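Deviations from the work plan: none for this task. Representative record:
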Amino acid sequence: MSEKEQTHENEIEESGVSRRGFLGAATAVGAATVAVPMTAAMFSEQAKAKSKEMASAHVGPGELDEYYGFWSGGQSGEVRVLGLPSMRELMRIPVFNHESATGWGQTNESKRIMGDSHRFFNGDTHHPHMSMTDGRYNGKYVFINDKANTRVARIRCDVMKVDKMITVPNIQAVHGLRVQKVPHTKYVFCNGEFEVPLPNDGRDMRDQTKYHSLFNVIDAEKMEMAFQVRVDGNLDNVDADFDGRFACATSYNTEKGVTLPEMMANERDHAVVFDIPALEKAVKNGDFETIGDSKVPVIDGRKGSKYTRYIPVPKSPHGLNTSPDGKYFVANGKLSPTVTVISIKKLAALFSGKIKERGVVVAEPTLGLGPLHTAFDGRGNAYTTVFIDSQVVKWNIDDAIKAYESKSESTAYIRQKLDVHYQPGHLHTTMGETRDADGKYLVCLCKFSKDRFLPVGPLRPENDQLIDISGEKMVLLHDGPTFAEPHDCMMVHRSKVKPNKLWDRKDPIFADTVAEAKKLGVNVETDNKVIRTGKNSVTVYMTSVAPSYGMNDFTVKKGDEVTVVITNLDQIEDVTHGFCVINHGVSMEIGPQQTSSVTFKVDNVGMYWFYCNWFCHALHMEMRGRMFVEA
Ligand code: RUQ
Ligand code: CUA
């Protein structure tokens, strides 16, 4: 063995790959809270030694990033847009949350999009994924799930705003979400993580044997449910193939337990494979049921169904990732130190009964403690986060397959283990979930930063680390402290995304508002008037051009429900106005050429200033007017 190889072996040994075996409940729960390998000081020493490489992540003032990153904002309920490699935050897109700056959750346009669920102020976003055409990002939409209130939303990338949102019926906690890659994103696939009684009308509420999880298929263009599939066990993460036939999801609770020991009882759980064209046929042929009030077709995909197959994998798998060459699904072990590599090519034989379930498994490399998610560089290497070891493990897929075939105990398929800060969850490579995987950067989303940044109280930022994967070795380039938990992200080359500079006057997001005005004989682009629409309701139509509104004041009556509709006539890029009424809790954004509206109650007689709260002009301070509330 050369000296270099020897050091490599040592590194692997030190970093715990020899710690084999499955974790019991106690170890898993305990270990996740225990302090971890490298200290911040050690990282900083390493960084100094590598200051040359660090320069490659530097994007100077005025320079544009090469990639857009779409980050989930976790419990904040939003999505964030970052530039890479600088890791600068470019925008926040409110989704399931309510947002003060833009009025999301408060404007009539956003309420229409959020539907009935606008009354919720929270969300828990996990998995932002972009629509594709032929396995490549098409720059059109980003889809995102809300685990907290069982919703899925769609962001339109031309305006970077949510334009559709649905609540998924018959399930609780939408978790894993991915898009159909081929031939294009006709469907969004997402998992019902928590098992529920079906129907959930109280009758089987306490009988957990009657609980089920459903796999959910959403029509991506209409943003309506296409169909659902009842499965055995629960569902965690999901991904789709590059052939347009299969989707695969992990299940960590095949026991259908409701307590931790119950959920961890089985040594093996499974990954479920769904035959999408066969399921479409089932819908056509009426081979489904409906549940309760819901009209959505629910197909029986439990064990023995012709529409699914259940592949046994080690204990409590988590992430499920498709390799960009379209050959493999990788199920990540979580409570097993292994990941399971499933050959997609062999799935057809599994469905036709030519081979058995485990016959599709072509490798099961041992990587470290707590494998959660895997990403790819397009050069045959995979990168897996190991949560408990706080590392990213780079391994070679072909070598892992050879080791499995020859029943070798060697872990020579492991190329490198890199310490990260701390407890990494998702990791992503640039373009890595598409055919265009370019193997340039990897982002690792770490759940804890501990001593890595200036302390900011008991609640610390998390840490998104940027890693250069273009060479033989992974090199840590940058730390990105971040707020409330970015579960997941995706990175797309900037050439694929073409955002608008101004709103289109025909934009469907405010088309209803414009149409309502028309019914009242109002042209929102020219008219400034107050229209009484009912005994206690009044609508105020206003235009805005920096630095003034089309109206200096308007008069309403105590007890009125007031709707203010503003159309921003500015045609200049980046001139956004706001509308805020003092002491009324009202605030909204009106972008150039946009129409926005908000409805609020006036309960107190008097004069109230309204003003523009988005800086727009040297006379921005003067852009204000008076609302008179008469008795
Ligand atoms: S999965 S916990 Cu993305 Cu690791 Cu939600
Ligand atoms: Cu308009 Cu500030």
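Residues 546-547, 577, 612, 614-616, 620, 623 surround dinuclear copper ion (ligand 2) (CB under 6 Å).
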